[in-house]
Amino acid sequence: MSVPSVGTDQTDPFILCQNLVKIYKIADLEVMALQGLDLTVRKGEVMAIIGSSGSGKSTLLNVLGGLDSPSAGVARVDGINLNRMTHSQRLRYRRKTVGFVWQNVSRNLIPYLSALENVEMPMVLAGSHNRKRAKALLEAVGLGHRMGHRPIHMSGGEQQRVAIAIGLANDPALLLADEPTGSLDQENSDIVLKVFNDVRDQFGVTIVIVTHDRAMAQAVDRYVEIRDGKTSSEAVRRVVGAKTDAEKSGESVAEETHEEYTLLDSAGRLQLPMEYRERWRVRDRVKLDIDGKQIVITPPTEDATDEQVGS
Amino acid sequence: MYILSILWMTLKRIVSNWRLELALWIGLLLAVGIVGSIPIYTSGSLQESLLRQWIRQSDSRPPLGLMMTHSNNDYRVEVDRAKFAELGEYLDRELPRQIGEAPRTYSEASELGINYFVPEDPDRPRPQSPYVNIKYISNLQELSTIVDGRWFEPRDDGVVEAVVDVGTLEGSQLLVGERYIYEYQPRDQEKTVITVEVVGVFRPNQETFTTEHWIYPPPFSRSLFVDPDVFHAQLLEGHDLLPSAYDWYFVFDHETVRVHQLSELVAGLELIEQRAGQMISNTRFWLSPLSLFRWFIGRAQVVSAFLTALSVPIVGMVLYYVVLIAGLTVERRRNEIAVLHSRGAGRFQVATSFLLEWVLLGVAALLLGPYIGLFVSQVMGASAGFLSFVGREALPVSLIGDAYRFGVLAVVLAIGAAMIPAIRSSRHSIVSFKQELARGGGSSIWKRFALDLILLGFAAYGYRTLQQQSETVSDGAAVVLMDPMLLFIPVVFLLGAGLLVLRVYPWVMSIFTWFTARLPGVVMNLSLRQLTRNSGQYMPLLLLLILTVSLGIYTASAARTLDRNFLDRVYYSVGSDIALSEQWRLPSGGGGGELGDEEGEGSAESRIYEPPFFIHHELPGVEDAARVLHVQASARSGGSFLGNADLMAIVPPEFGRTAWFRSDLAPFHFYEYLNVLSRHREGALVSEAFLKERQLQIGDRLTLTFRNQPIEVYVAATVPYWPTLNPMERPFFITNLEHVQEQIALEPYNVWLRTSSPGYLDQIVSGLREQGVYVVSVRDANSQIVQGRNEPHRMGFFGVLSIGFIVSALVTVLGFILYTFLSMRSRFLQFGVLRAVGLSVRQLVTLLSLEQLFSLGIGLGAGTGLGILATQIFLPFVREGAIENTQVPPFLIVTDPTDLGRIFAVLGSMLVVAVVGLAMILVRMKLHQAIKLGEEG
């Protein structure tokens, strides 16, 4: 439904991160988890953030979820400035604006409550109890028949689907998922992924999924890769006229439907991936040339190779 | 619906974590029980002494007889007469309401006052004293019968009919059927003349001849009784007179009054008195137990405050346990808290969820806790020493409002304490929680603030204060039994020292670890390493264990010392088991002729004779008997007066077998002194202080004068103390009875008896009576001991200390079970790894056993050491109550190894149960199958 376009945003984006910095200070050691990250997400998008361990993707998720506050930079979700939130605003944000799905079941579900009660719990916390809605949500994730079961009696996939229903309990505008399929097999992963797409269609919620699984990432509208606390590249599902059935369901097709981009930060800087730098032995400076329609990056001429970087 | 679903979720949460919740509930229950037991015990133990004291104090009146009196002797106060009826109704309504029952009897009375009184016919014989009082008693006709003439009747002719009692009739020369004139004349006012006709004589009925029925007890004098209605209508209203006095008398059943209701009752009665005074001035309670009640309330407060102060460390221990369990609960919930946080729960909501949970537990504890309190107070009522109990008559205890009030207080306190870890954790978000997990606990607050050293500093300061206090003479402040400071300061000391032990503990363990690493075998080293690296885990438990053991040892010694010194004081004051003084005088011409050679010299009006001494040996239960002559004499030396002294004359062999003597009272053995006396017929043992003060020497001659009869003695030896004698009050001389009897006239001596076991006193007294010997007075050590041990504060003191130890042992063992259980559960994975690496099940079991053994051993060892240390440091300051330094015999500090045995027996048996329980849990955990990996922690 949404037509993703790169770079230029006419409308105000749903999520806007500009030059986002997060520093953790542990004893005398400072860790810069986010080092000036830029990100925009449009409303109603299902997008993924990928990156290896320690790249800062979980930190980003915590910031977006209002669990952690950024050290510097801009972070805005649905018009709410995440930098300057009072304690009660933060609470309100967590209750009304955002929902979570975590990788670990124990962080999604409370073991002694039934599926239905688990879904009701965030409602109770927000002070608006609505059992009908809780039931509807469980129906929506395809668990209408298992409402009274406790998590222990459910499969991993079912538990994750309950988690999605919980995330949607208070009708959030944004659903954040941290490795939601991390401990699931392929079959269950596909089901969970389908549920994400379904609930987006049904409830119009924007979904950001953090994953290290490229296959998972490629099944969504758009994915952004984070490296060293910065967004480095982006891949957007290519628009090929009307979507085919194959496109909707399969990741085998998705491979071809994504086009990859490298991202510039707000000042126009871009990051050369490490393997490029190694391959072309780029150290600390390159040469930029304009060649007709292309920007050509060349390693300094004193270096032996004159192979060109980029395209 | 909303509230219900919150409650439902809370209940589910409690059920899901039942082990810890149960442990927490037990903690709350104990807190409620202990705190609630104090008011229950206080009121129960004082109840009996209240009744006893009450009856003793009000022997001539019923205990709960209340008389409200208006007195207006000189008719100075203007009173609205209508108010009398009003006040009567008010009292009739309010008093039963305050006391909570209908009065057994009620009567009222009033009088016009004593006025001039002459026969109407001046020629008739005048009464002996021309003054009488006109009165009425409302229930006079019910309580008495006419013996002459008839009862009074109302009349129309203005003449008032009156009756008199036999007493009045005899004391005067009133005649039945005669008319008299009563001249009512308030000072400076006009005279009112009333004509009275005496129509009858009454006598009180035998069966109602008690102060319960009679507002004024007969016989009367100069009192004419008239019909109450006539008194009011004809005299007061008709002649416009005021009574000189008006009394309302209510008698209630006193046995329904409970100690814990006293303050309420006093307040109610005071209000009534105040109200009555407002209605009619000069009106107050003439007869009421108010002052006794007030005294008792004060006493109840003192006992209760004393016991409360004693129980503070115990309650503290229970609260600490509650905090520990709450901490464990919170620890286990951390993940859940993180979930709640991410779902939008605020800090407040997280804290509230815990609060709700614990309030539910608290309510459950309040339901049962007061019954625990009831039980605890019964146990206190049966205690006779530290961890020793006797079968006494059960205390009349009941669940009183205060038990619930105190219980609620305890629950609030405990929940407040439990909220500390909850609130601390509610501050964590999932992010900070994960960070903390990654970083590892860090050092505890107490370590960072050097709390151990601060506490030790406080204890040192407390020690100095105690030292200064013991140097200055106590001012006799209202301290009961033991200054609670002597418990607090050692507790602070033990807490500080315990924490210090915990600070050193990891270092000691790493030394051990280093050492065992060089020994063959991996298990020992592995267990030590576990203890060293995770020392934080067992710390709170170790602290509990150390405190329990050390405080147990200290309180046991303090209790033992106080009890021992109490016993010694009794025996010192009695001298032996029983001391009798017998009747030596016979009414003139009486029996006892067979001892005729002794008579004559004594006194003029009665003969004196010496009852046969040998019969005492044949009395039941008597092991030995001794003759002890004890008189006051004045001491002279070469003509100069040295002061008054106690003179005790004994027969050394008898005395040695019979008398009580404590070995520390004199530098030599007791018998050595008696031997000196035996050798020196005219010698005397003299109080050491006196000899020093007067600078006398051994061998100096002295004259003791008793009733102008001189007794010559010389100083044979000195002795600091002697049973029944206080050298700080008066010097004493102990000499041979034979020697004294030779020099003075026959003087009655006392007989001291040593009995085989207590309880023969009655048989002894009656046995003597059969022989014609009458016992005049008795000092019985056993009854004094029983009475002293039944004193509410002493019983409560031992009770609180015993209960305190049992409870702290209980929470320690409970904590031990929980900690071990949880630590094993959390280390299940580790066990799996160890098994996978190749440790056998037996090695694993050995590993765990060694761990427990080490931590328990260190806790018990450190606790014992610190307990003995605290005993040595602080016990010398223990003194009983306000007794000054002049106490005899001197205060003795005692420790008894059997106390240590008892402490270890209690703790040991609990630990055995705990270890067996844990072993069963381990079997259920299928430790031998702990190979499966993969479960996330």
Highlighted features:
heterodimer, A: 311 residues, alpha/beta, seven-stranded mixed beta sheet, 11 helices, disordered N terminus, B: 937 residues, alpha+beta, six-stranded mixed barrel, six-stranded mixed β-barrel, 26 helices, 23 strands, disordered C terminus
The helix content of chain B, as a percent range, equals: 40-55%
Main sheet specs of chain B: 6 strands, mixed, barrel
| SSE topology string of chain A | EEEHEEHEHHHHEHEHEEHHEHEE
**Mean pLDDT across all residues of chain B, rounded?**
83
3D structure, described in words:
- The complex is a heterodimer of chains A (311) and B (937).
- The relative contact order of chain A is 0.14.
- Chain A has a seven-stranded mixed beta sheet. In chain A, strands 2-1-4-5 form a four-stranded antiparallel beta sheet, covered by helices on one side. In chain A, strands 12-13 form a two-stranded antiparallel sheet.
- Helix content of chain A is 31%, strand content 26%.
- Chain A is an alpha/beta fold and 311 residues long.
- Chain A has helices at 57-64, 87-97, 105-108, 115-126, 131-140, 156-167, 186-203, 214-217, 245-249, 251-257, 274-279, and strands at residues 15-26, 29-41, 46-50, 72-77, 80-81, 98-101, 174-178, 206-211, 222-227, 230-237, 258-262, 287-291, 294-298.
- Chain A is built from eleven helices and 13 strands.
- With 937 residues, chain B is α+β, with helices and mostly antiparallel strands.
- Chain B is 54% helix and 17% strand.
- In chain B, the strands form four sheets. In chain B, strands 2-3-8-5-7-6 form a six-stranded mixed β-barrel.
- In chain B, helix 13 packs across helix 14 and helix 14 (485-517) packs across helix 15 (523-533).
- The two termini of chain B are 35 Å apart.
- At the A-B interface, helix 2, helix 3 and helix 4 of A face helix 1, helix 8 and helix 11 of B.
